[in-house]
C-alpha cells in the first residue's frame, strides 16, 4: 500500500512539480493568501495576542492587500477551538436587505437577471466588521486599535502590487463597470504593474473610523450613512436600517468523526461542514483508498460520493433560522450506508437518474481562507468572502471598500443555476434578513483531544471538495500537509453532470480510464487556495497553497 501511494505521489510530482516542504515551527503558525497579512497575524502573536486576535488582524489586513476576496464589505465564518477544548462558530454571513423579495432577480418573462451578479442590487448586508469585532471582544485580548493598525498602515502607506494582483486587477470586468472601482483599482486604464505601490486613502480613512469608534461606525455611524446614501443614489437595496439591525450569530459547530479523528466544522447556513461529514461517512469503511491516491478508481469513487452530497444539497439546505434542515438524518451513518450502496465502483451514475436522497424514516467565486494556531493551542479557521472575484464590482463612494455580490448565492429561480453552476431549491429562496446558503468549510480536526489539522479554502462549491480531498490525502494516504495541499484536485457537484479535473496533474491514462467509467470530463484551472496547518511529531507544519502567492510564517 505504501509503495502504491509513493508511486502515485511520484507521478503527481512529475506532473505538477515537486511539492515544497511545509513551513516548520514549534510554537505558533499563521497561513494566509498574502504575505503582508501573514506577517500582521504573526506580529500579533509575537506581541502576546492569541489566535483570535491574530485572525482579526489578518481579516482587516486582507481587506487591504487582497481586494478580490479580503473584505469589510462581505461576510463569512470563524471557527474557533480553544486550548481548553471549548469550540464555537461565529457566523457573520451577509443578510438579504429588508426590501428583498423572492422574485427580485426575475424579468417580465421570468428569466434571471444580471443585477444579481453586478452592481448595487447584488449586495447583501455586510457582516465582516461586526463579526471580527464580536470575536475580538469575546475571545481576544489585544486592543481593537492594535488589531486594525497593520491594515491602516498598509492602506495609508501602500504596499507593492504582486504579479498575481496586477493581473487580477487588470483583467477584472467587474471593476471596470464601476466608476470608483475603475479609478482606485485600475487607475482609469493606467493599470498597476508588478512592484508599483497601491495606496488606498479612502479605505484608510474608513478603517481609522472603525478603529476609533468600533463597528458602530460601519453599522450606524458615518460609514453607515455614506454607504446607505450611495446605495440609494444607485438603486441599491441596503438602507441604514439594514445596517443598524445586522447581528452576528454564534452557533454550535458541527461535529463528526473519521477513523479516530474528530471533525469540527461549519454548520448551516453553510452546507460545507455537513457535506464534509456526510462524504466522510460514505467513504468510511468503503475501502476506496486501496487503489491508491490519484488512481482512476479512487477518483471515480470519491466523485460519486461528491455527486450524492450535492444532490442532497440542492434540496435540503438553507438558512437554519428560516427552514428546518434535517441534519440529524443527513449526517447519520445509516443514511450514509444507504447512499453508498447506490455507488457502482466501476461505472459513473448519471446525475439525471440520481436525485436527492429519500429521508423518509431518517429525517465559491472569490473567497479567501486563513488558518492560525497560537502557542497556547488555540486554533482558528476563517473563511470570508465577497462571493465573486471583487464581488459586485462596486466600491462604495468615498469609502474605499468593495461590496459583495452575495445575493447570487440565493435561489434566484428554482432550476436555474447560479454563477457556480449550482442548482438550488426553495429552501434557499430569497427572503428579507435571510442568510444565503454557503459552501465555506472552515474545519479543525483533532486527535486525542489536540489540534491535528486546521484548514479551509475558497472556491465556491469546490470549497467542499477541496477540504475533503486535503483531509483524505493526510489521513488516508499519509501525505504531509504540504503534499496534501499541492496534490491535484477534482470536483463533482451533481449538476452539471461533469467531473472537473485541474488542468495539471492527471495523466492521460487516468483521464482515459475515467472516461471509460462513464464520466463526462471538464478540464479546468486550479481549484481552491488552501491554507492548512498540521501538528505532527512535535512540529507545527504550515502549508500555503503552491497554486497561489500564499505564505506561512511561524515561530
Question: Can you give a write-up of this model?
Answer:
With 555 residues, this protein is an alpha+beta fold. It has 2 domains: 2-24 and 253-365 and 440-554, Gamma-glutamyltranspeptidase, small (S) subunit (Glutamine Phosphoribosylpyrophosphate, subunit 1, domain 1, 4-Layer Sandwich); 48-73 and 97-250 and 386-428, no CATH class. It has 19 helices and 19 strands. Strand 10 (366-373) and strand 11 (379-387) form a beta hairpin. The longest helix has 21 residues, at 296-316. The chain is globular. Mean pLDDT is 93; it is low at 1-17 and 360-364.
CATH class of the largest domain: Alpha Beta
Distance between the termini: 35 Å
Mind summarizing the main beta sheet? Answer: 7 strands, antiparallel
Question: How many helices?
Answer: 19
How would you name the CATH homologous superfamily of the largest domain?
Answer: Gamma-glutamyltranspeptidase, small (S) subunit
Helix content: 25-40%
Question: Strand order within the widest sheet?
Answer: 1-18-17-13-12-9-8
Amino acid at each position: 500500500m505504501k509503495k502504491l501511494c509513493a508511486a502515485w505521489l511520484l507521478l503527481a510530482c512529475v506532473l505538477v512539480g515537486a511539492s515544497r516542504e511545509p513551513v516548520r515551527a514549534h510554537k505558533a503558525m499563521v497561513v494566509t493568501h498574502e504575505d503582508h497579512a501573514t506577517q500582521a497575524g504573526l506580529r500579533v502573536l509575537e506581541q502576546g495576542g492569541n489566535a483570535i486576535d491574530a485572525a482579526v488582524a489578518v481579516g482587516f489586513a486582507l481587506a487591504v492587500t487582497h481586494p478580490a476576496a479580503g473584505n469589510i464589505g462581505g461576510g463569512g465564518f470563524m471557527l474557533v477551538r480553544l486550548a481548553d477544548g471549548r469550540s464555537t462558530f461565529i457566523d457573520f454571513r451577509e443578510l438579504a436587505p429588508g426590501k428583498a423579495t423572492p422574485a427580485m432577480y426575475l424579468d417580465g418573462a421570468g428569466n434571471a437577471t444580471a443585477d444579481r451578479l453586478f452592481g448595487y442590487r447584488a449586495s447583501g448586508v455586510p457582516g465582516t466588521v461586526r463579526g471580527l469585532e464580536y470575536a475580538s471582544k469575546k475571545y481576544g485580548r489585544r486592543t481593537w486599535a492594535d488589531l486594525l493598525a497593520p491594515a491602516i498602515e498598509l492602506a495609508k502607506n501602500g504596499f507593492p502590487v504582486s504579479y498575481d494582483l496586477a493581473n487580477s486587477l487588470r483583467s477584472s470586468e467587474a471593476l471596470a463597470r464601476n466608476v470608483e472601482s475603475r479609478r482606485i483599482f485600475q487607475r482609469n486604464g493606467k493599470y498597476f504593474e508588478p512592484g508599483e505601490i497601491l495606496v488606498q486613502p479612502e479605505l484608510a480613512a474608513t478603517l481609522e473610523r472603525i478603529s476609533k469608534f468600533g463597528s458602530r461606525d460601519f453599522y450606524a455611524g458615518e460609514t453607515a450613512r455614506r454607504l446607505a446614501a450611495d446605495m440609494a443614489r444607485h438603486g441599491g437595496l441596503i438602507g441604514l436600517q439594514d445596517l443598524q439591525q445586522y447581528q452576528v450569530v454564534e452557533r454550535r459547530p458541527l461535529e463528526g468523526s473519521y477513523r479516530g479523528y474528530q471533525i469540527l466544522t461549519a454548520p448551516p447556513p453553510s452546507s460545507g461542514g455537513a457535506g464534509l461529514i456526510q462524504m466522510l461517512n460514505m467513504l468510511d469503511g468503503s475501502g476506496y483508498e486501496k487503489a491508491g491516491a490519484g488512481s482512476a478508481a479512487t477518483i471515480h469513487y470519491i466523485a460519486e460520493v461528491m455527486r450524492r452530497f450535492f444532490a442532497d444539497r440542492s434540496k435540503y439546505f438553507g438558512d437554519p433560522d428560516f427552514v428546518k434542515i434535517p441534519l440529524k438524518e443527513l449526517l447519520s451513518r445509516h443514511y450514509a450506508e444507504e447512499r453508498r450502496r447506490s455507488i457502482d465502483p466501476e461505472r459513473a451514475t448519471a446525475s439525471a437518474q440520481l436525485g436527492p436522497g429519500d429521508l423518509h424514516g431518517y429525517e465559491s467565486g472569490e473567497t479567501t481562507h486563513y488558518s492560525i494556531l497560537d502557542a497556547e493551542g488555540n486554533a482558528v479557521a476563517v473563511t470570508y468572502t465577497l462571493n465573486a472575484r471583487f464581488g459586485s464590482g462596486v466600491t462604495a463612494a468615498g469609502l474605499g471598500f468593495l461590496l459583495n455580490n452575495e445575493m447570487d448565492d440565493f435561489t434566484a429561480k428554482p432550476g436555474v443555476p447560479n454563477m457556480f453552476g449550482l442548482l438550488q431549491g426553495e429552501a434557499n429562496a430569497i427572503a428579507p434578513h435571510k442568510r444565503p446558503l454557503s459552501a465555506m468549510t472552515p474545519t479543525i480536526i483533532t486527535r486525542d483531544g489536540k489540534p491535528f489539522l486546521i484548514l479551509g479554502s475558497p472556491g465556491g462549491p469546490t470549497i467542499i471538495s477541496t477540504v475533503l480531498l486535503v483531509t483524505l490525502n493526510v489521513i488516508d494516504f499519509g501525505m504531509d500537509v504540504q503534499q496534501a495541499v499541492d496534490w491535484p484536485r477534482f470536483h463533482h457537484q451533481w449538476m452539471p453532470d461533469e467531473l472537473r479535473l485541474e488542468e495539471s496533474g492527471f495523466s492521460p491514462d487516468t483521464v482515459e480510464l475515467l472516461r471509460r467509467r462513464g464520466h463526462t470530463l471538464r478540464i479546468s484551472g486550479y481549484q481552491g487556495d488552501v491554507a492548512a496547518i498540521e501538528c505532527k511529531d512535535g512540529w507545527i507544519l504550515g502549508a500555503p497553497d503552491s497554486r497561489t502567492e500564499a505564505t506561512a510564517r511561524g515561530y
